[in-house]
Structure formats: C-alpha cells, structure tokens
Amino acid sequence: MSDAQVAAALLAQQLINGLTIGLVYALIALGYTMVYGVIQLINFAHGEVFMLGAYLALTAVWLLTAWLGAPPAILLLCGMFALSVVGCALTGRLIERVAYRPLRGSPKLTALITSIGVSFFLQNAVMLLYGSREQSVPEVLPMVSWEVGGVSVSGMQLLILAVSAAMMVGLDRFVRRTRTGKAMRACAENTEAASLMGISPDAVIRNTFMLGSGLAAVGGMLFAMNYGSVSFHDGYLAGLKAFTAAVFGGIGSIPGAMIGGILLGVFEGLAAGYLSSEWKDVFAFGLLVCVLIFRPSGILGENLPEKV
Amino acid sequence: MLEVRHVHTRYGKVDCLKGVGLSVGAGEIVALLGANGAGKTTVLKTLSGLVRPSAGEVLFEGRRIDGVSPEEVVRRGVAHVPEGRKVFQKLTVLENLELGAYLRRDGAGVRGDLEHVFALFPVLKQRLRQRAGTLSGGEQQMLAIGRALMSRPKVLLLDEPSLGLAPIVVSSIFRMIREINREGRTILLVEQNARMALSVAKRAYVLELGEIVLSGEAEAVRDSPEVQSAYLGGG
Ligand SMILES: Nc1ncnc2c1ncn2[C@@H]1O[C@H](COP(=O)(O)OP(=O)(O)OP(=O)(O)O)[C@@H](O)[C@H]1O
Ligand SMILES: [Mg+2]
After folding, report:
1. In this predicted complex, what is the ipTM?
2. Which residue of A has its CA nearest to B85?
C-alpha cells in the first residue's frame, strides 16, 4: 500500500470508530433533548439511567445463562434489550413522578439540583446492588471482524450501527406519525395550547421520560457489549458527553441530538487517531465550551419567535 | 347553557376577577367587551380550566366545570381559541387540525369534520402540508378556529379573533363566526373591536377591572353612552 492509501485507511478507520461511539452518544442525547423540549429541564440523572441500562443488560445475560446454560446469541440479545429497555423506562417514569412532578412550577434551579441528587442516588443504588468493582460482560456476539482495504469493521460495530439506526428511524416515525408523538411535539411547543386540545401534559411528560430512558437503555446495552465491562461510574462521563452532543446539535431538537451525537463521536475518533486518545475528552468538552460561547442554540436549535 | 356565578380568579394575591357573573344560552353569540387588562382573557381561561377560580362556580349544561382539568372541559364540549391564536407553528396545518380532534375516536366523523373545516376555510386545504408558522396572521386565525371546531364543540370561546388583522380579513373572520353560529354552535366572543363584536352578537357584557359593569341586548349595549364614548369613539 502506498502512503496515501495508508493515510486514507487510517482516516476511514477513525471515522468508523467515531461513528460507532457517536451513535451511542446520540441514543443518550435524545433523552436529554426530548425532556428539555417538554419541560425545559436538563435531567442530569439521565446518564445514570444509561448506566443502569448497561447493568440490566448484564443482568439479563446472567439470568439467561443461569437458566438455559448457553442460549443462542439472538436470545441473549433479545433478553438484554427487553430487560434494560423495560427496566429503564419504568425507572424514568418513577424518577419523573417522584422527583420532578412535585417540583413542577418551582424555579428551574431547584429541579436541576434535584436531578443531580437523583443522579447520586442512582449511582449509589447500583453500587450497593452490584458492588463497586467493575463487572465484566460475557461475550454475547462471536468476535468477528472484516478487513476491507486496511479498514477493519467488527460485528459489534455493525450491530451498533443497525440497532441505533433502527431506534432513530423508529423514533422519527413515532414522533411524526403517531397520535402520542404529535401530542409530544405540540406540548413541546406550547403546553397551554396543547392542553386546550385535550392533551394531558402530565401524560406527555411521562411518555417522554419513558421513551428517553428506553433509548438510553439501548445505548447502555450496546455500550456494555462494546467495552466488555461496566462500572457504576460509566454514566457520568457518557452522560456528560451526550449532554454535550445534545447542546451541540441544538437542545430540544431531535434530529439535532442525532447529528450532534454522531459528529461528537467522529470528532473524538479523529482526535484519538491523530493526536492521542487522552485528547479526546479534552476535545469533546472544548467543543461544549465553544458551542456555549459562540452558538448556544446549537446546529439545529431554533429560537422561533412566536408570531402574534 | 354556560353559566358563570360570582367568579373570583386571582393571580398571586391580586384579584383579577371580582365576582363575575354571566350566562350564555344555547345557540347564542354573546360578546364580552372590555379594555386592555379588564380580565376578559382570564374569564375564558377560567371557563376552559386553564386557571381555577378562587371562589364562585361555572356551570356547563347544569354541571360544575370549575376546578375540572382543561382536558375534561374539552371532552364535555367547550373549545377555547386562545388569544394570539397559538397554533402549533412547527406542526403542519393538517397536524394542527388533527390535534384539534385529539380526544375523538370516531375516525369517520373526524374526516367529515375536516372536510367541513375546509369548506369554511378553503385556504387551509391548499396549505395542508405547510408548517403553520408560515401562514399569515389571518390564516393562522382561521386555523385556530378550525382546530377548535375539530373537537366538535357545543360552545366555542373566541379570544380576540380580530387581533392584529387587516379590516378585510376581520370581516371575513366575522362572517365565518356568524356561519359557525348558524350551524348551531354557541359562541362566547371576547373582543376589543366592539363595533364588529356587537354587529354579530345577540347580547353583550362589558367588563371593567374584573367586574361586569353593563350587560344586555347587543343594540342596547351599543347605544349606551358608556360604550359609545369608551369603545366606539362616538359621543
Ligand atoms: N399569568 C398572570 N399572572 C399575573 N397576572 C396576570 C396574569 N395574566 C393576567 N394577569 C393580569 O390580570 C389582569 C387581566 O388580564 P387579562 O389578560 O385577563 O386581561 P384582558 O382583558 O384579556 O386584556 P387584553 O385585552 O389586553 O387581552 C391584567 O392586569 C393582567 O396583568
Ligand atoms: Mg386578553
């Protein structure tokens, strides 16, 4: 291979690696952005829901292997998906009901601080339940990868790509076409006008939390499989990265969260490939600071003034 | 049909409505007039459940609706077209209309009513896939009214439908209001444009600083010296 080919292969490799992690960020970022859209709250506990999703996926593997010995990979995948999505959606619903609903109408800062409290609570609850040591995740997928022109793509990467793409297309359809999805968008735009249509804001908020938490759970499951281990700390950094992605894409915007997540992952991949992997977090948070200073509304954020 | 008795509504510590009483009979158009800040919008918000009165009662078809959620008020047949239209700007015209029928499960009936709204406001049919935010002010008002009609209400509460619109658009909106009333819908119309409102209304109330100061048949209210000088610029 010529030097140019090697360089191109390296670039392609970093783009693929970045895309993979970016998709996981995007799955988490969607929950931040949707909740912000309906109640203008940055739910800092969301990263912990993602972490819980990773642990629940691991739990499903334990349960299924204890029960069936060596179940086929597809069964394991379905079990992981079901347990983490259902568990996290219910957790999201509970968090909203117990921690945020009583604070509806109180100052933003109160809810923000509460979300940090919920975040500590979830971290500690998981630590007490599962122990403070990192847990290794058994291999679910056979370790396969394909080499094309010096670029390698693993089965895990393809799985992340397929599952996240399916989630995002599904979410887009749901939000645009279903009655519940339309109610969500209406409520995000104007809660009072939505309630005049007979839409219950409480129900919309509850659905939003469940949906966002379910998506974070999928992210958590993919994350656990990709890294092969989980720790109760994992929600913190991933949550902060996904929050960055949501702000970068334009907080409140669903396509923004998708694009923001993917771009952040790609930037990180490039930083890791061309500088060194220690640089990627610096890069990510540098990006957050820049966005907040120069374009707080993000890439797709719109400050549509109301027409009177 | 709609009966408001001694209603007090407050924001914080300030009483905004101080014992308002009014009634709207089936099939009527009733106008509620008053200057800026008189409390007209607050009366409508109290009726539709967006705010709760601190005292008094609101009856619709003989049942209490004060303290009931806005969803339940819509379900019982009262639709509120809010001040400033409040159409969902980022949603399409069609989606706005669909949301008007949010609580309904009778698909065929909804489709029929959609055609009916298009017959009243043909311009909406041409803009179906457009975002509501791209409509003109007059078109947005038509959409807001059409959206409210999609719930198939018995009573329509209209808050300043003429606000910020050119005179020619105002008169076409008022023609539609009359038309909607002729189809059997009861209307409570809040307006600052007293002349227009009194031309369509059967009866009228005048609200000042949270109290009803005058009421009666529309002609009598129009000819009263207070309304002549304060709202119609006559002497
Ligand atoms: N959410 C609120 N919080 C506090 N005060 C309010 C609120 N809404 C209205 N007010 C006050 O209540 C009074 C009546 O307001 P309202 O909007 O009902 O008047 P209005 O007759 O509809 O006026 P306009 O013709 O300008 O629409 C005003 O003094 C207003 O400042
Ligand atoms: Mg008003």
Report:
1. 0.94
2. A308
